[in-house]
Design goal:
Strand order of the largest sheet: 1-2-3
Order of helices and strands: EEEHHHHHHHHHEEEEEHHHHHH
CATH superfamily of the largest domain: Intergrase catalytic core
Length: 383
Protein backbone atom coordinates (compact mmCIF):
# COMPACT_ATOMS: atom_id res chain seq x y z
CA UNK A 1 0.00 0.00 0.00
CA UNK A 2 1.62 3.22 -1.18
CA UNK A 3 1.31 6.69 0.31
CA UNK A 4 2.84 10.13 0.04
CA UNK A 5 3.01 13.22 2.23
CA UNK A 6 3.36 16.67 0.71
CA UNK A 7 3.68 19.98 2.51
CA UNK A 8 0.95 22.43 1.50
CA UNK A 9 1.86 25.40 3.69
CA UNK A 10 3.02 26.31 7.17
CA UNK A 11 2.11 23.39 9.45
CA UNK A 12 -0.13 21.92 6.74
CA UNK A 13 0.42 18.53 5.07
CA UNK A 14 -1.50 16.52 2.49
CA UNK A 15 -1.58 12.74 2.92
CA UNK A 16 -2.33 10.70 -0.22
CA UNK A 17 -2.66 6.91 0.05
CA UNK A 18 -3.31 4.60 -2.91
CA UNK A 19 -6.07 2.07 -2.18
CA UNK A 20 -6.59 0.32 -5.56
CA UNK A 21 -8.78 0.73 -8.63
CA UNK A 22 -12.48 1.17 -9.28
CA UNK A 23 -14.52 -0.89 -11.76
CA UNK A 24 -13.37 1.36 -14.61
CA UNK A 25 -9.70 0.98 -13.73
CA UNK A 26 -9.40 4.44 -12.17
CA UNK A 27 -6.90 4.76 -9.37
CA UNK A 28 -8.42 5.42 -5.95
CA UNK A 29 -6.79 7.44 -3.18
CA UNK A 30 -7.51 8.54 0.34
CA UNK A 31 -6.57 12.19 0.70
CA UNK A 32 -6.36 13.99 4.01
CA UNK A 33 -4.99 17.33 5.19
CA UNK A 34 -3.20 17.34 8.53
CA UNK A 35 -2.43 20.47 10.54
CA UNK A 36 0.72 20.30 12.63
CA UNK A 37 4.27 19.03 12.25
CA UNK A 38 5.65 16.46 9.80
CA UNK A 39 5.59 13.83 12.55
CA UNK A 40 1.84 14.42 12.98
CA UNK A 41 1.29 13.77 9.28
CA UNK A 42 3.47 10.64 9.45
CA UNK A 43 1.47 9.35 12.41
CA UNK A 44 -1.85 10.07 10.66
CA UNK A 45 -0.70 8.28 7.51
CA UNK A 46 0.44 5.22 9.47
CA UNK A 47 -2.88 5.11 11.32
CA UNK A 48 -4.86 5.16 8.05
CA UNK A 49 -2.70 2.43 6.50
CA UNK A 50 -3.02 0.34 9.66
CA UNK A 51 -6.83 0.72 9.72
CA UNK A 52 -7.03 -0.16 6.00
CA UNK A 53 -5.02 -3.32 6.64
CA UNK A 54 -7.38 -4.34 9.45
CA UNK A 55 -10.50 -3.39 7.54
CA UNK A 56 -11.35 -0.74 10.14
CA UNK A 57 -10.94 2.41 8.06
CA UNK A 58 -13.98 4.65 7.81
CA UNK A 59 -14.25 7.38 5.22
CA UNK A 60 -14.16 10.76 7.00
CA UNK A 61 -17.47 12.54 7.19
CA UNK A 62 -17.86 16.21 6.48
CA UNK A 63 -18.98 17.47 9.85
CA UNK A 64 -19.00 21.06 11.04
CA UNK A 65 -17.59 22.15 14.35
CA UNK A 66 -21.11 23.11 15.49
CA UNK A 67 -22.39 19.60 14.77
CA UNK A 68 -19.52 17.97 16.64
CA UNK A 69 -19.82 20.35 19.59
CA UNK A 70 -23.49 19.48 19.93
CA UNK A 71 -22.65 15.77 19.88
CA UNK A 72 -19.97 16.36 22.50
CA UNK A 73 -22.37 18.25 24.77
CA UNK A 74 -25.02 15.51 24.45
CA UNK A 75 -22.59 12.69 25.23
CA UNK A 76 -19.14 13.29 26.72
CA UNK A 77 -20.04 16.46 28.61
CA UNK A 78 -22.99 14.75 30.30
CA UNK A 79 -20.80 11.83 31.37
CA UNK A 80 -17.96 13.80 32.95
CA UNK A 81 -19.44 17.11 34.11
CA UNK A 82 -21.86 18.15 36.83
CA UNK A 83 -25.14 19.79 35.78
CA UNK A 84 -24.01 23.39 36.51
CA UNK A 85 -20.88 22.85 34.41
CA UNK A 86 -22.94 21.38 31.58
CA UNK A 87 -25.23 24.42 31.69
CA UNK A 88 -22.28 26.82 31.55
CA UNK A 89 -20.65 24.89 28.69
CA UNK A 90 -23.90 24.92 26.72
CA UNK A 91 -24.07 28.70 27.08
CA UNK A 92 -20.51 29.08 25.81
CA UNK A 93 -21.21 26.85 22.82
CA UNK A 94 -24.61 28.33 21.93
CA UNK A 95 -23.80 32.00 22.49
CA UNK A 96 -20.18 32.17 21.37
CA UNK A 97 -18.38 29.21 19.82
CA UNK A 98 -21.14 27.98 17.50
CA UNK A 99 -22.08 31.43 16.06
CA UNK A 100 -18.42 32.32 15.48
CA UNK A 101 -16.73 29.05 14.48
CA UNK A 102 -19.50 26.50 14.11
CA UNK A 103 -19.91 26.70 10.31
CA UNK A 104 -16.31 25.59 9.70
CA UNK A 105 -15.79 21.91 8.94
CA UNK A 106 -13.94 20.46 11.90
CA UNK A 107 -11.20 19.03 9.66
CA UNK A 108 -10.64 22.46 8.15
CA UNK A 109 -10.52 24.36 11.45
CA UNK A 110 -7.14 26.03 11.93
CA UNK A 111 -5.28 27.72 14.74
CA UNK A 112 -5.63 30.93 12.76
CA UNK A 113 -9.44 30.63 12.79
CA UNK A 114 -9.43 30.21 16.55
CA UNK A 115 -6.95 33.01 17.17
CA UNK A 116 -9.05 35.35 15.02
CA UNK A 117 -12.16 34.48 17.05
CA UNK A 118 -10.33 35.27 20.31
CA UNK A 119 -9.23 38.65 18.93
CA UNK A 120 -12.76 39.51 17.77
CA UNK A 121 -14.31 38.38 21.05
CA UNK A 122 -11.85 40.50 23.00
CA UNK A 123 -12.71 43.53 20.87
CA UNK A 124 -16.46 43.27 20.39
CA UNK A 125 -17.94 40.12 21.92
CA UNK A 126 -18.45 37.77 18.96
CA UNK A 127 -19.35 37.81 15.28
CA UNK A 128 -23.07 37.43 15.87
CA UNK A 129 -23.44 39.78 18.82
CA UNK A 130 -21.29 42.86 18.43
CA UNK A 131 -21.05 44.90 21.58
CA UNK A 132 -18.90 45.04 24.66
CA UNK A 133 -15.81 42.88 24.32
CA UNK A 134 -15.27 39.82 26.48
CA UNK A 135 -12.58 39.73 29.14
CA UNK A 136 -9.42 37.67 28.67
CA UNK A 137 -10.50 35.43 31.53
CA UNK A 138 -13.83 34.72 29.81
CA UNK A 139 -12.10 33.96 26.52
CA UNK A 140 -9.72 31.66 28.40
CA UNK A 141 -12.77 29.70 29.61
CA UNK A 142 -13.87 29.42 25.96
CA UNK A 143 -10.40 28.22 24.98
CA UNK A 144 -10.34 25.54 27.65
CA UNK A 145 -13.72 24.18 26.57
CA UNK A 146 -12.80 24.28 22.88
CA UNK A 147 -9.54 22.49 23.67
CA UNK A 148 -11.47 19.72 25.50
CA UNK A 149 -13.90 19.30 22.63
CA UNK A 150 -11.15 19.12 20.01
CA UNK A 151 -9.13 16.70 22.14
CA UNK A 152 -12.13 14.39 22.00
CA UNK A 153 -12.24 14.89 18.23
CA UNK A 154 -8.63 13.69 18.09
CA UNK A 155 -9.62 10.64 20.14
CA UNK A 156 -12.50 10.04 17.71
CA UNK A 157 -10.03 10.16 14.80
CA UNK A 158 -11.83 13.09 13.21
CA UNK A 159 -8.72 15.27 13.31
CA UNK A 160 -5.05 14.41 13.70
CA UNK A 161 -4.00 17.31 15.89
CA UNK A 162 -5.79 19.76 18.17
CA UNK A 163 -5.63 23.30 16.69
CA UNK A 164 -6.65 24.91 20.03
CA UNK A 165 -3.07 24.88 21.26
CA UNK A 166 -1.87 26.18 24.59
CA UNK A 167 0.28 28.86 22.97
CA UNK A 168 -2.76 30.73 21.59
CA UNK A 169 -4.62 30.76 24.91
CA UNK A 170 -5.16 34.29 26.25
CA UNK A 171 -2.64 35.30 28.89
CA UNK A 172 -4.59 36.42 31.94
CA UNK A 173 -3.39 38.47 34.86
CA UNK A 174 -4.90 36.50 37.74
CA UNK A 175 -5.38 39.70 39.72
CA UNK A 176 -6.79 41.86 36.92
CA UNK A 177 -10.39 41.02 37.81
CA UNK A 178 -9.91 40.53 41.54
CA UNK A 179 -11.17 43.31 43.79
CA UNK A 180 -10.19 43.22 47.45
CA UNK A 181 -11.45 45.65 50.06
CA UNK A 182 -9.77 46.36 53.38
CA UNK A 183 -11.33 45.28 56.68
CA UNK A 184 -12.28 48.92 57.30
CA UNK A 185 -14.01 49.10 53.90
CA UNK A 186 -15.73 45.80 54.65
CA UNK A 187 -17.06 47.26 57.90
CA UNK A 188 -18.44 50.30 56.06
CA UNK A 189 -20.04 48.04 53.45
CA UNK A 190 -21.74 45.87 56.08
CA UNK A 191 -23.15 48.97 57.74
CA UNK A 192 -24.46 50.13 54.33
CA UNK A 193 -26.08 46.71 53.82
CA UNK A 194 -27.60 46.69 57.29
CA UNK A 195 -31.13 46.33 55.90
CA UNK A 196 -30.23 43.60 53.37
CA UNK A 197 -32.18 40.37 53.94
CA UNK A 198 -29.00 38.42 53.09
CA UNK A 199 -26.72 40.39 55.43
CA UNK A 200 -25.85 37.37 57.62
CA UNK A 201 -24.99 35.38 54.51
CA UNK A 202 -22.65 38.16 53.31
CA UNK A 203 -20.95 38.30 56.70
CA UNK A 204 -20.54 34.53 56.64
CA UNK A 205 -18.85 34.72 53.21
CA UNK A 206 -16.33 37.25 54.51
CA UNK A 207 -15.65 35.20 57.63
CA UNK A 208 -15.22 31.81 55.92
CA UNK A 209 -14.14 32.42 52.31
CA UNK A 210 -16.70 29.90 51.09
CA UNK A 211 -18.23 29.92 47.62
CA UNK A 212 -21.79 31.13 47.11
CA UNK A 213 -23.06 27.65 46.26
CA UNK A 214 -21.33 26.12 49.26
CA UNK A 215 -22.80 28.69 51.65
CA UNK A 216 -26.33 28.17 50.36
CA UNK A 217 -25.98 24.38 50.79
CA UNK A 218 -24.64 24.48 54.38
CA UNK A 219 -26.83 22.70 56.90
CA UNK A 220 -27.01 22.92 60.67
CA UNK A 221 -26.07 19.22 60.76
CA UNK A 222 -22.72 20.17 59.18
CA UNK A 223 -21.77 22.21 62.27
CA UNK A 224 -19.76 20.73 65.13
CA UNK A 225 -20.89 23.10 67.87
CA UNK A 226 -18.43 21.69 70.40
CA UNK A 227 -15.32 22.03 68.22
CA UNK A 228 -16.44 25.16 66.31
CA UNK A 229 -15.92 23.53 62.90
CA UNK A 230 -17.97 23.25 59.74
CA UNK A 231 -17.97 20.34 57.29
CA UNK A 232 -18.23 21.41 53.62
CA UNK A 233 -19.19 18.65 51.21
CA UNK A 234 -21.86 19.99 48.85
CA UNK A 235 -23.02 22.99 46.88
CA UNK A 236 -26.36 24.33 45.70
CA UNK A 237 -27.02 25.07 42.04
CA UNK A 238 -29.80 27.18 40.58
CA UNK A 239 -30.21 26.52 36.86
CA UNK A 240 -33.11 28.18 35.07
CA UNK A 241 -35.09 28.27 38.31
CA UNK A 242 -34.38 24.64 39.20
CA UNK A 243 -32.43 24.37 42.43
CA UNK A 244 -30.63 21.27 43.60
CA UNK A 245 -27.71 19.97 45.62
CA UNK A 246 -24.50 18.74 44.07
CA UNK A 247 -21.20 17.47 45.41
CA UNK A 248 -18.22 19.82 45.63
CA UNK A 249 -16.23 20.41 42.44
CA UNK A 250 -13.13 18.52 43.65
CA UNK A 251 -12.07 16.16 46.40
CA UNK A 252 -10.21 19.07 48.01
CA UNK A 253 -13.51 20.96 48.07
CA UNK A 254 -14.78 18.50 50.68
CA UNK A 255 -13.17 19.94 53.77
CA UNK A 256 -13.60 20.91 57.42
CA UNK A 257 -12.86 24.48 58.43
CA UNK A 258 -12.51 26.07 61.84
CA UNK A 259 -14.83 28.93 62.69
CA UNK A 260 -14.19 32.09 64.66
CA UNK A 261 -16.22 32.80 67.81
CA UNK A 262 -17.84 35.64 65.85
CA UNK A 263 -18.94 33.18 63.19
CA UNK A 264 -20.29 30.77 65.80
CA UNK A 265 -22.37 33.61 67.23
CA UNK A 266 -23.68 34.36 63.74
CA UNK A 267 -24.73 30.72 63.33
CA UNK A 268 -26.48 30.68 66.69
CA UNK A 269 -28.42 33.77 65.67
CA UNK A 270 -29.33 32.14 62.33
CA UNK A 271 -30.64 29.11 64.22
CA UNK A 272 -32.72 31.30 66.51
CA UNK A 273 -34.15 33.26 63.56
CA UNK A 274 -35.10 30.04 61.80
CA UNK A 275 -36.84 28.77 64.92
CA UNK A 276 -38.97 31.93 64.92
CA UNK A 277 -39.78 31.45 61.23
CA UNK A 278 -40.93 27.88 61.93
CA UNK A 279 -43.38 29.14 64.52
CA UNK A 280 -44.69 31.82 62.16
CA UNK A 281 -45.10 29.63 59.03
CA UNK A 282 -46.12 26.48 60.91
CA UNK A 283 -47.06 23.77 58.34
CA UNK A 284 -45.99 26.06 55.48
CA UNK A 285 -42.37 25.89 56.68
CA UNK A 286 -40.29 23.34 54.76
CA UNK A 287 -37.37 21.98 56.77
CA UNK A 288 -34.33 21.26 54.59
CA UNK A 289 -31.94 22.04 57.50
CA UNK A 290 -30.27 24.81 55.47
CA UNK A 291 -28.54 27.45 57.59
CA UNK A 292 -29.19 30.22 55.07
CA UNK A 293 -32.54 29.89 53.33
CA UNK A 294 -35.70 31.76 52.50
CA UNK A 295 -38.01 32.59 55.41
CA UNK A 296 -40.22 29.56 54.67
CA UNK A 297 -37.23 27.18 54.75
CA UNK A 298 -36.95 26.75 50.98
CA UNK A 299 -33.45 26.90 49.42
CA UNK A 300 -32.06 30.38 48.98
CA UNK A 301 -32.54 32.06 45.59
CA UNK A 302 -28.92 32.47 44.44
CA UNK A 303 -29.67 35.13 41.82
CA UNK A 304 -31.66 37.12 44.39
CA UNK A 305 -28.68 36.97 46.73
CA UNK A 306 -26.36 38.23 43.99
CA UNK A 307 -28.68 41.02 42.85
CA UNK A 308 -29.27 42.19 46.41
CA UNK A 309 -25.53 42.17 47.08
CA UNK A 310 -24.85 44.21 43.95
CA UNK A 311 -27.48 46.81 44.91
CA UNK A 312 -25.87 47.47 48.27
CA UNK A 313 -22.40 47.25 46.76
CA UNK A 314 -23.29 50.04 44.35
CA UNK A 315 -24.81 52.04 47.19
CA UNK A 316 -21.49 51.73 49.04
CA UNK A 317 -19.55 52.80 45.92
CA UNK A 318 -17.58 49.54 45.65
CA UNK A 319 -16.69 47.34 42.67
CA UNK A 320 -16.51 43.95 44.35
CA UNK A 321 -18.51 40.88 43.38
CA UNK A 322 -19.92 38.35 45.84
CA UNK A 323 -17.10 35.97 44.85
CA UNK A 324 -14.59 38.71 45.72
CA UNK A 325 -15.58 38.22 49.37
CA UNK A 326 -13.74 34.90 49.09
CA UNK A 327 -10.64 36.71 47.84
CA UNK A 328 -10.94 39.22 50.68
CA UNK A 329 -11.03 36.41 53.23
CA UNK A 330 -7.92 34.80 51.73
CA UNK A 331 -6.03 38.09 51.63
CA UNK A 332 -6.84 38.80 55.28
CA UNK A 333 -5.47 35.38 56.26
CA UNK A 334 -2.28 35.83 54.26
CA UNK A 335 -1.77 39.35 55.63
CA UNK A 336 -2.14 37.90 59.13
CA UNK A 337 0.77 35.55 58.42
CA UNK A 338 -1.23 32.35 57.88
CA UNK A 339 0.74 29.87 55.78
CA UNK A 340 -0.49 29.65 52.15
CA UNK A 341 -0.91 25.88 52.54
CA UNK A 342 -3.45 26.44 55.32
CA UNK A 343 -5.23 29.09 53.24
CA UNK A 344 -5.32 26.70 50.28
CA UNK A 345 -6.91 23.94 52.37
CA UNK A 346 -9.41 26.35 53.90
CA UNK A 347 -10.52 27.60 50.48
CA UNK A 348 -10.78 24.08 49.08
CA UNK A 349 -8.22 24.60 46.31
CA UNK A 350 -7.02 21.39 44.67
CA UNK A 351 -3.39 22.50 45.06
CA UNK A 352 -1.38 25.16 46.86
CA UNK A 353 -0.16 26.35 43.43
CA UNK A 354 -3.65 27.67 42.66
CA UNK A 355 -3.55 29.73 45.86
CA UNK A 356 -0.05 30.99 45.13
CA UNK A 357 -1.00 31.99 41.58
CA UNK A 358 -4.16 33.79 42.68
CA UNK A 359 -2.60 35.76 45.50
CA UNK A 360 0.99 36.14 44.30
CA UNK A 361 0.52 39.92 44.31
CA UNK A 362 0.35 39.76 48.11
CA UNK A 363 3.51 37.71 48.56
CA UNK A 364 6.16 40.45 48.11
CA UNK A 365 4.81 42.43 51.06
CA UNK A 366 4.43 39.25 53.08
CA UNK A 367 8.00 38.26 52.25
CA UNK A 368 9.22 41.67 53.38
CA UNK A 369 7.38 41.26 56.69
CA UNK A 370 8.91 37.81 57.05
CA UNK A 371 12.44 39.11 56.49
CA UNK A 372 11.87 41.86 59.05
CA UNK A 373 10.69 39.25 61.55
CA UNK A 374 13.75 37.09 60.82
CA UNK A 375 16.02 40.07 61.44
CA UNK A 376 14.25 40.71 64.72
CA UNK A 377 14.65 37.12 65.88
CA UNK A 378 18.12 36.04 64.74
CA UNK A 379 19.64 38.79 62.60
CA UNK A 380 22.09 40.10 65.17
CA UNK A 381 22.78 36.72 66.73
CA UNK A 382 24.18 35.11 63.59
CA UNK A 383 25.92 38.18 62.13
Amino acid sequence: MQGSIKQRGDNSWRIRIFTGYDEKGKQLYITKTVRGKKKDADAAARAIIDDLGKGLYKKPQKITLAQYMRTYMETTAKLINALPTQHRYNEIVDLHLAPSLGAIEIQQLTTTDIRQYYAEALESGNRQSVGKGLSKRTILHHHRLLHKILEQAVEDNLIAVNPATKKIAPKVDDNAEMNIITPDEAEIFLKTANSCKYLECIKFALQTGMRRGEISACKFSDINWENSTLSINRGLSDIEGIRGERSTKTRAGRRIIELMPTTMDLLKQAKATQAQNRLFFEEAFTNHDYIFCEANGEPMHLDALTHSFMWYRNKAGLKITFHDLRHCHASYLLAAGVHPKIVSERLGHSSIQITMDLYSHLLPSLQAAGVAKLQELVGYKIA
